[in-house]
Each structure stands twice: as C-alpha cells, then as structure tokens.
Here is the input.
Amino acid sequence: MGPLSGIKVIEIKGIGPGPFAGMLLADLGAEVIVVERSRQPSGISFPSSVDINCRGKRSIALNLKTKQGLETLLSLVKTADMLIEGFRPGVAEKLGFGPSVCHELNAKLVYGRITGWGQTGPLSQVAGHDINYISLTGALAAIGTSNSPVPPLNLVGDYAGGSLYLVMGMLAALHSAQKDGKGDVVDAAITDGTASLMSVIHTSAKLGAWQTQRQSNMLDGGAHFYRTYKTADGKHISIGSIEPQFYALLIEKAQLDPKEFQNQLDPRGWSELSEKLEDVFSQKTRDEWCEIMEGTDICFAPVLDYSEAQNHPHNQARSTYIDIAGTVQPAPAPKFSENVLDRPNPPESEGLSTESVLLDAGFSEDEIQELIDCGAIPAR
Here is the structure.
C-alpha cells in the first residue's frame, strides 16, 4: 500500500543519508531491498535489526567481491525501478555495478548516487562528514552563537541537503523514465542540496536584511522575538512572534510594558530587549508558561527533548510517533488523503531475507545452494 506501491528499490547499504532515503521510499510503499554484508557493523554504523532507517525493508547479504555475488546483484537490478548507492565516485564502477553496466541491463533504472561533495569537483574523492559539507555552503557559518558556529546535529546536511534532495531527484527521474523509458543518474551532493536550502538567506542578503555576523539577524537568535529562553526550572521555551499582531499578543501575555517593546524591528535594541525577556521568562517554569501561552497566536512552543515530544498532546493527536515492535519512533510522513500508508515492519537483521528475496527473483533452491557454496551469500 502507499503511493509508491509496486516500485522496487535496490539499496546498497551505506550510512546516514542513503539508508534514510531508502526508509522514506519504503514508508511510502516501495519495496526496498537492502544489499549488505552479513556481518556485524563496526564504527558508527548501527546493527540493522535496531536501526529505524532499516524498517520496512528486506535485507539480503551479498559478497559483491565474488563474481557470483555481483551477478546476483545485477540479476536483481534487471527488474528494479531504482538503485541507491553512497560510495565515493568510481567505487561502484570498480565493483562492477556502475550506472553504465546497470543501464545496459535495465534502461529505465533510476540510479541514485548520494555523496557529500558530489561525483565531480576537486573535493569529490576526499573524505568528509556533514559538518564539513555544511561548512562549505555557508550554512554552518550562520548557525550558533555570536562567538562560534554550532553544528545543528547532522540534520541540515546529511538528511535535508542529502536524503531529501536524493529522494526528490529520484522520484522526478522515475516520473520521466515512466514517460519515455529512459532512466537517469541522480548525482545528489550534500553540498548542492544544502546550498539550495540557503536560498532564503541569499534573498535576504540581496535585500539587505541579512548580516554575516551570527545572532545579528531576525532568524538566527539575534531578535528578542525569535529565540529561546530559559525558564525557572532550567528548561526552555521558544518564541517566534514575528508578525505585529503576534508580537502584540506576546507583550500582553508576558505582561510587558508596550512602550519598552514598541520598536520591535530595530536591531539596535534587540540585545537589551532580549535581556529583559530573559528576566521575565526566568520567573516561571516551562509548564507555567505553557499554561499562559500555548495554543495562542504568540507563536510559542515548549522546547521538548525527543522523549518528551512523544507525549505532547498535539503529536499524539496526529499519531506523529508510533510503536513498532516495542520501539517508539517517528511515523511515516507526510500523510495523504487517499493513500493509506502501511505500518512499517520492524527492521531486519543483516541478510535475514536473502533466500526469500532470491526465490522471489526466480532463483531455484539449487542455485541458492550454489551461491552459498561459493561464498556469494552466507550459509543458512
């Protein structure tokens, strides 16, 4: 079920943005087959059986360094609609399943490549992580305190600039392939996607409404009406009262002096007004401020940690979080009016569905045993 029902995706197991992109496609109904090694991961990888990004997928373990393992992968490619890989440029070609090889077998295949620097450019062959990619695009320089940039988790680069742009590009290429029968190669560079996310900042700068100094702009913590404040219990609330009517309501609910806060948009007074609000908000607990402000048009919300967020009434009303096999996790998103999304199956351990995937692909029991004997797939 779901809008991508009937779409088959081969995901070559990686870390970060590739698996997340595969999860998004699986959540929307695609059949996602993850090709991975039959071993416990090391380093920063998670075991597949506990990795939420592996939910809703089937796992097949292949030794791609064997001739038979590669041939098995290419056999699966013949009937796939999409393939995702996240190796450095040239590695998939070296292993024998680059775009040209795959398109010879399946002209309609959408071949998705997710990397930090992209397939071309002087940095394309060097290592990097999210913090480096968002550094190169101006995003990290704009986030943090006036003294220092602060990494915004790895959500801005890996997942927003990477996974989401990869999925968007692959769905666009799939639409095109279904019309003209010609597949495509999607070169999703996290640097490109993150630069695209910065479009509003470029517009603001062109209009003279953005300064390169952090905490000197409306949306980066510089404005007293768009930032977080610490409460009496050591927790935090967020205020986003940009529009005049919302700002007026903030003044009313916080019992502020309208004369002191009348010059809302004058940056010269933001620091002083922030200090006054810090004092005001420090006098009540987060829950007390929720009683006063939550549900009004102030543009207010408590700052919740990930576990608190699961229990907030709004998130519960929308079923934003679901329980899958005893693990509470974000539900598939977005929601649809006509398409019903299945509850994802729990993530599988490495290679759990190897034989069932091969049987579905037309391999016989004898052929599967031959793959086991030669080391292309793990023993039962």
Observations:
- The longest strand covers residues 31-36.
- The mean pLDDT is 96.
- Residues 9 and 32 are 5 Å apart (CA to CA).
